[in-house]
Amino acid sequence: MTSRLRHPLAAVAVTTLLTFPWLGVYFTGGAESLGNVGTVAVSGLSVLAASFLLAWGAETAEKDVPRAFAIAVLAILAVAPEYAVDALYAWQAGQGRTGAGDLAVANMTGANRILIGLGWSGIALFSIYRAKASGDVAVEHNDGFLTDTVLLDRSIATEVCFLALATLWAFFVPMNGGIDALDMLILVGIYVVYIGIVIRGEPEEDEAHVGVPAYLQRTPARVRIPSVLVLFGYSGFLIFTAVEPFAHGLENIGIQYGIPEFFMIQWVAPLASESPELIVTAYLVNKARTTAAFNALISSKLNQWTLLIGTLGVVFSISQGAYGVLEFNQKQAAEIWITAAQSFFALAVLINFRISMREAVALLVLFVSQVLVEYLHIQGVVEFITTYDLLIAYTVLYIAIGLAMFATRLDDVRTVGRLAKADATNSQPAAESD
Question: Does the residue 78 lie in any domain?
Fold first, then answer.
């Protein structure tokens, strides 16, 4: 009996059982009878279980497809709820709901900043903490205060380059007062070209797996491939259906305690919808797979920063039955600028394939301090600066720090460019000069 419980498929069975309460609620339409707390509990448990199923599917898929492509699929499925929430607001804007376009931009920018401000920084700090027990070779321990460092895989050079292209374009998005067809063509085009490059790679087998992925990778392809598709499909369905009620339940609980609805839509809803991604990457770190965790985080940022922004205008146009620009106000323009600036700073951090504790703390502190000051301003505690000026001030700060870091890392910029070019042309990178 004990050996059966230790079988890898027992973990899959137990995890799947945790999703059944949500399936019952979803198919019977009984979410309203649960109330906010009950809905958050049941849907949240399903999201947690789906995250593990998704991670197992992605790890198993590395046997048959390039790791970068498997991680890209994982990233898309993990942030699918964010697409659903943003598409809802874009659709409502097309139907004439006042301010819905602003809400779509607020939710999208909040999600992107959470992914870096909490995701990248939090996973870096967790990786360093876990390395003491796991012996993760991707973490370098150094003498001095906050000097331990996460070493990133040089294979992320392609993701870094495409993320840089999307970030640079994002600064121009507010210039036309909304998201238009040109934004869609540029941003979606960036992602399509990226996928076209990574899918040409060869499957990698140098990564040792344990548990469920190891078991499934040993099965014949006729069993393994359908298993991966089922894990992806079922976890994707759970995430897509459960995260929106989870997010709205949290929103309603927050509003009950006096937190403004707009603030909840920008920060609490995206935090809920980003939870599968954060759970998956924490799971990978816990297995001493820090490299895979950061590859997933960077891939998620890339697809959110391209597909998410680029497709909002499409949803808006379909909703109103004619081509149109998804317009937003001046504050949301500033939200896009600060999000692009944070991305610029984050690129400066990882351009040398390293994230130190100091850099992770800087990402975290800058993010948390801006959200905190904005919240205090909404509550009337901070009155010396407007929200718009606050966003512009942080935008300038992010850019200034990023420029200073890039100025000292020009050799790293050239290295990333050389590696990305070699990946795109499927050739060996040129040797680095001394």
Answer: yes
